[in-house]
User: Fold dihydropteroate synthase from Eiseniibacteriota bacterium.
Amino acid sequence: MIFEYRGGAWDLTGRARVVGILNLAPDSFYDGGRYLTREAAVARLEAMASEGADAVDLGAQSTRPGGAAIGAEEEWERLEPVLASTASAASAAARLGLPLSIDTYHAEVARRALEAGVAMVNDVSGLGVDPALAEVVARAKAGLVLMHSLGAPDALHAPREYRDVGEDVRSLLEERLRLAESRGIPRERIALDPGIGFSKRAEQSLEALRGIPRLLTLRRPVYVGLSRKSFLGALGGGEPPEGRLAAGLGATVAAYALGARIFRTHDVRETVSALRLAERLLSPEGVLTA
Assistant:
């Protein structure tokens, strides 16, 4: 299966891809405040590239549980110093041949980021907050990640009730996939994210992971973000984010076996290592082989 983005494409039949997280929000749940300056952000981007990242996802709006939503202008004020200068993360990424992604649900932020050189947009609302974002992505010929979530920006984490988590996630993402296509985005430029930890309790997040094979019936790559998330602690030993690496890697390998092929993570080196082993152990169909 192919995922296209502006300036390139990933063939996901042979190798899973790893997207490193670069948080530019001061209140992110795990590493908020570490990379707020241009120099720190560029250094972190270069480090993730050396660890094997296939792309880096920049986010200036914290989507942690209980986090406050911010407007498009404040979001861009956090991003601009890192993206829009001669010594920017965008320049460093271009030098390294590393595509950048922008984590936003604001069309205006996406437009400015794409003008600065970003190659794909990661919308945690799945076009639910600002449907105009689809036209921005279409005009730029960028890639788009549609994530499953429900509600307003300040309530994306609020748990919901489902008849069948896997089927409900698939149904909404099918609807959003059709919306994106109707706005001019080819299917080849779209990936689908079941939204682990968004609008779901811990057990519901597990059900969403188990539902990955259903998502694959939409014939688009499945993209997941698992690292350090609260469901790992809730279902484990109550560990804080700093203690969730092992559980996150276990969930990553399980998601790979179920068919996910793009992984967004804080822990690039460890995730790359786990996935390379999973690729050796598992057949392309995701069945253990001797």
In short: The domain at 2-7+14-280 is CATH 3.20.20.20 (TIM Barrel). The two ends are 25 Å apart (CA to CA). The first helix runs from residue 38 to 50. The mean pLDDT is 91.
